[in-house]
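Students often ask what a holo structure prediction actually looks like on paper. The answer is less mysterious than it sounds. You provide the chain, you provide the ligand, and the output is a string of discrete structure tokens encoding the 3D arrangement of the protein together with heme C.
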Amino acid sequence: MSESDKLNFMEKMKPWMGWLVFGSTMLGVFLLGLLAASIMERRQEAARLYQAPVNIADNESDSAVWGQHYPRQYDRYKKMSDSETKTKYGGAYPRDYLEETSANVILFAGYGFSQDYLQARGHIYAIEDVTQTKRVNEKTPATCWTCKSPDVPRLMAQMGPEKFYAKNFNELKNEITHPIGCLDCHDPKTMGLRISRPALVEAYERQGKDIAQATHQEMRSLVCAQCHVEYYFKGEGKSLTFPWDEGMAIADFEKYYNDRDFKDWTHAISKAPMVKMQHPDYEVYSMGIHSYRNVSCADCHMPYRTEGGEKITDHYVQSPLLNIANSCAVCHRWGESEIHARVEKIQDKNSQARKMAEHNITRAHFDIAACMQAGANDRELKEVRALVRRAQMYWDYVAANNGMGFHAPQECQRVLGMAASSAQEVRVICARILAKHGYLGQVRYPDFGSKEKSQKLIQLFIKNKPPLLLTKK
Ligand code: HEC
Ligand code: HEC
Ligand code: HEC
Ligand code: HEC
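The corresponding structure tokens follow.
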């Protein structure tokens, strides 16, 4: 190629090169623009997440009013009206725990839970369900309303918590109409998460901690810990109290209640002083790996979802097994069916250990009753009654906790193991007491194979006409 040919060639190429430079510059600008737009969008998203509402009143307890400002959250919230969802051990379906496990009737003999005990369903049903349960009667204190409604923080702001607790359940019936809703977890002025229930704040104070110092991630569990915890009604004033002074493990609760000589009821069969665990979800969760690794209740039960290009918190609070893709699968790169199977395996094992403990504890109550029939006095039975109280408290820490052991599998197995062995100890000691009174044969255990049979059976004990449990001398 000669010099002039070369020049000629360059001249021919020029327009093409020019377009190339121009084109790639434009592409670069376009990509930079996209990046900038994406950053802006993220910022706006973050701003939107914490955007303060304009005019929601201080104690607005009607979630529909909040819903006008936050339709996406409200629409998902309303999905909690579905009470048909079922998983192997959970879901919002109100399964009958007494029908499913008739041992429950024996374990709660003499207490309301032997009459009526259904699985929890969505937050939207809180008022309806507490009004319908047979466990509520004319003596029930207003304290029972505490975890059911955003009208509670409204009323507490008006009358103060102490006056609220001291009222009767029925006295406040007309005031408490809205089921668990926005005001329970949110500050209407800032939309930030807030603690609306004094019992949780006080439990922190008694441990020398300030709940206002909780991190944002902790708050994503603490809003749930206002209600999903173990509690009792303290003293004459019936004030709602969490027994956390010694800690949140079952041995800490046992010490707390024993130090105060507290009992919820006297067992109709064994006459042991009993404590019912409520639903220590937060406490059991805090013993598990997810709590240790800072995964919050909301991460699994209220995961993020994208709607119309907007990232929102899913306000359809439910079993994560019905929403694995948005909850577990965000962190665990296992397949959905594998995750599902993994959870059920953990739960099956927990369920088995639970059954073993139930077997021993139900029989321990009958063994003590047999000792009474053989003529043993209260002094002789003090030790076994204390042991069966312990066994059942330990069992119930796991049983009353939701999730069939998933929240802290190892801790649940350990506690169930202790429950089964304490009950076994009762049975060994009872055999000795029976022998001392001249009875060497087997205790005659009555049939409690169904809810109906069990409920009839416990009536006999309640009326002090128990069936004969002793075999010949
Ligand atoms: C790592 C995920 C995870 C975390 C964190 C978590 N849970 Fe769960 N939770 C589950 C799973 C899985 C189940 C079992 C659901 C089933 O059996 O259908 C469950 C069950 C439940 C249930 C019963 C729901 C049902 O449909 O039976 C409640 C109530 C609950 N959890 C409350 C809480 C609370 C309160 C916290 C925080 C203190 C919490 N969970 C933390 C995963 C989690
Ligand atoms: C059981 C507690 C609870 C209830 C009840 C509740 N929220 Fe939330 N809400 C949360 C949690 C947890 C978040 C996540 C907050 C965070 O991480 O900062 C949230 C976040 C939000 C946000 C921020 C945007 C987003 O989606 O993350 C809005 C808006 C909101 N909720 C509106 C509502 C409305 C409206 C209601 C009533 C219909 C309501 N919430 C009821 C717990 C609750
Ligand atoms: C104001 C008290 C309160 C707060 C706050 C609260 N819950 Fe509940 N929760 C309840 C009650 C009461 C029920 C049972 C409602 C019924 O059965 O009528 C329930 C039921 C549930 C269920 C069972 C629903 C189903 O479909 O299986 C889950 C899961 C649950 N809550 C998780 C949470 C989580 C997670 C949080 C925190 C983000 C939370 N709750 C905050 C009181 C509360
Ligand atoms: C926000 C992230 C996150 C979410 C959501 C989450 N996990 Fe995890 N999970 C973890 C972390 C972190 C660990 C601890 C792993 C470790 O430290 O090696 C863990 C551990 C586990 C383990 C092992 C437990 C053990 O004892 O070794 C199982 C099983 C598990 N998760 C199941 C689930 C299921 C099922 C869900 C949904 C219901 C879920 N996880 C949701 C982060 C998460």
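Residues 442 and 471 are 6 Å apart (CA to CA).
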